[in-house]
Design brief:
11 strands, alpha/beta, single chain, Spore Coat Polysaccharide Biosynthesis Protein SpsA, Chain A, globular
């Protein structure tokens, strides 16, 4: 999905064309703001490149659900434009892990641009876990959800899950999906070599995105998905306490 990130996507397409492991059949690009297409980059690709130009901005979940309606392959990948592949082998490893765990969302380790490990695996975002994380600076010890910067799922699994909840415009749709997946008996599985993710974390410095983030958290805390998941963990839903 591109928000005037044409140059970034050109670079990613070149990497996908170089290291597709012979398994990529189609890349679907959603232009969420007006911009030119990828006519030059797509000429380098052995796979099909489908471009969607939105007449109006749509949220993260809505855009990926829209892209999924164009998917005709056995697996569906959610892939941010700010991902950088570091070499071959990613796709083979993810597909092998998916074959071993067909009810799983598989993902590679994410690294920051400085080579450090990215904190893309998180505990369920309750008020207390966010307090421990941001105020007390405590390390999280459980993986309840994973950033949707790079996911691979069987298409049938994504379809059965109903895709992303489009009630989230931006933020928390990946947490919600991961919780719903595990409530349905699915799993999260890390596999393959690491990739680089240039996470901007813009919700911390852009007022509009901060508002989206807060609204998404409030929505998640009001949904039964969270309380059901906490019960699965044997916890008491903190957001329901007086």
């Amino acid at each position: 999905m591109s928000h005037a990130q044409r140059d970034m996507i050109e670079q990613l397409l070149s990497q996908l064309a170089r290291w597709d492991d012979g398994v990529i059949s189609e890349v679907i690009i959603t232009h969420n703001v007006p911009e030119d297409g990828m006519s030059m980059a797509r000429q380098k690709c052995a796979f099909a490149v489908t471009e969607i130009h939105n007449p109006r901005r749509m949220g993260f979940g809505a855009n990926h659900n829209q892209a999924f309606r164009h998917c005709r392959s056995s697996h569906f990948c959610v892939l941010n434009p700010d991902i950088e592949l570091m070499g071959p082998g990613v796709w083979d490893a993810l597909l092998e892990a998916s074959a071993q765990n067909p009810d799983s969302c598989v993902y590679p380790p994410l690294m920051n641009t400085d080579g450090s490990r990215q904190d893309s695996e998180r505990e369920v975002p309750t008020p207390s876990s966010l307090w421990r994380r941001h105020a007390l600076r405590r390390q999280e010890t459980r993986v309840d959800w994973v950033s949707a910067a790079f996911w691979l799922l069987p298409s049938d699994l994504f379809r059965r899950m109903g895709g992303f909840d489009e009630g989230y415009y931006m933020y928390c749709e990946d947490a919600d999906f991961c919780l719903r997946l595990q409530l349905a008996g699915g799993h999260l599985a890390k596999a393959g070599p690491p990739v680089v993710h240039d996470a901007a974390r813009s919700s911390r410095r852009l007022p509009q995105r901060f508002v989206w983030h807060v609204n998404s958290l409030l929505r998640l805390w009001r949904q039964p998905v969270l309380s059901d998941y906490l019960r699965l963990l044997g916890a008491t839903p903190e957001t329901q306490r007086g």
